[in-house]
Amino acid sequence: MVVIAASIVTRGGKAVLSRQFREIARSRVEALLASFPKLADSGTQHTVVEQDNVRFVYQPLDELYMVLITNRQSNILQDIDSLHLFAQVVSTVCKRLDEREILRNAFELLSAFDELVTLGYRENLSLNQIKTFLEMESHEERIQEIIARNKELEASEERKRKAKQLELQRKEAARSGAYGRGQLAKTPSYPVYTPPSRPSVPDSYDSYEAERNKTFNKSLPTRGKGMQLGKKSKTTDIYEKVRGDLGPEVEDAPLVSAQPTPTAAETKVSSSRPSLESTSPIHVAIAEVISAKLSREGALQFFEVKGDLNLRISDPSFTKVSLSLVAQEGTHKAQFRTHPNVDKALFTSNKTIQLKDTTKRFPSNNSIGVLRWRVTAPADSTDVLPLTFTVWVNKSSDDSYTITIEYEFNSTSSTSYLRDVVVTIPYTTSEPAVSSFDAMYEVTGDSLEWTIGHVDADNSNGAFEFEAQAEDEAEFFPMSVRFEMAKPFVDVDVTSVKLLEGAMDEEVNFEKVIRSVGEGYVIE
Q1: 243 and 312 belong to one structural domain
Q2: What is the top-level taxon of the source organism (predicted)?
C-alpha cells in the first residue's frame, strides 16, 4: 500500500488540509482534489473511486470529506482500514468537524498524519499510541519540576524562619539595652546574623562543637546592684525566657560558618550541625500515577497504578551507595521491577537497591530510574478505588440535559485523604448552568471544572448538578478526574542511604520527594 496524500476537503473540492507523503507537485494534488467531488457518491458512507493512475478512498465527515489518494495497485482493504484510523484521529483532535476547527488544529492533525504514514507506507499503530506520541510527556521532566518546586518551597520557609529569629533578637536586644543603661554591668550582647561564607579553616566539626558548648555553659556576667534584693527584674525574666526558647543554636551561632573537610560523617541524617540551605548530594523521587476507567454507574472497567523510584546524585564522591527501602506488595500484589544493573536478589531478600557490580558507581548529575512497580485490578473491584463516582443523566423534552455527579470517598483505600480533587466535564453545544449553589466551579471555552478540593472521612461524599443543551448526552463524556494522594498507593519509601566505601555502612543525608497523583482517571 502506498499513500500519496491524505487530505480533508470540502464538498466543493477545496482542500482544507493536505499532507503529501511522496514526491508530488502541489498543483497536481489540488487538481486531483478539485476533480474528486465529481466522482464521489454522496449517498454512501465510505467508498472508493478511481481516476487516471490514482485511487480516491474517502469517508464523509459531516460537511467535509476525509480523502486518501493512493496508487491503483494498493490493497483496498488496507486502504479502508487506514481511512478509518485517519477519520478517528480527526474526530479525536477536533471537537467539531468544520473548516474553522480543522484549521485551528492543523498542526496537531499534521503531526498525527506523520505518525500514521511514513514515506507513503502506513505504520502499525493504534489510536492510543498516536495519542501518547502527540502528548510528548516527559516523566523525567515532571520529576525535575517536582524537585525544583519543593526546593523553592523549602527555601521560602527557611527565609521566613530566619527572619523571625532576627526579629526576636532585635526586640530582645532593644529591651536589654534599655535596662542596661541604669546598671553598672552591661547585658550580654547578641550575635547578628550575616550570610555564611566558606573560608578554609583547620578546625574540625568536633572541636567547633566542644568550643561552642563551653562558651554556652559559661555563667552570665554579674549584673550591677541597685535593683530590689530577692526579686528578679522583669527584663531578666524576659531575657531568660527568650534565651531558653531560642536555645544554644541561635545564641551561639558563629558569624562565619567554617567549612570542614568533606567526610561521610558530615552528611549523617542525625547530624545536629546548623544548616541554612540543603546541601544533600543525594536526591530521591518517588512518583506514582493512578489510572482508572469508570462507568457512569460507578463500575470499575480498568485500573492501573504505575510507580517509579528515581535517584539523582549531584556529588560524584557519593555515587557508591545502597538504598534501604520499604516496598510492600500489599493486598493488591504489587509487581516490582528493578533496573537491569541493580542486584535483584538483594532487593528481593533485603529490599535494598544496590548495583550488581559493586566496583561500579551510579552515574552523577543524572536522574535514573532504579525501581518500578505496577498494580492492576480486575473489573468491578471498586474496593481499590480511592474515589468512586456515579453520574445521573436526565433528558428533558427540549433537548436539555440535567447532569448530577456524585462522589464517594473509599475510607478502606490505601490513603487517609485526597487533596486538589478536580472533575473536568466537557461540553460542546451550550454553556452549562450550574444548579449547585455551594459548589466551586469554573467554566472555560469547552469544559466545566468542578473543584472538590480536600476529600477525607469527614468530607467523604458530595454531589454536583448542572443543566445544558446538547444533541446527545455523549457530549459530556468522558469526564476526567485529577487528584493527589496523601501517600503512595503502594507502600514504597526510602528509609536510609549508606555509603559502600570509606566509612562502610555510614548513613548519609538525602532529600526525598514523594508524589502520588491521579491521571487518566476517567468516567465514560
Answers
A1: no
A2: Eukaryota
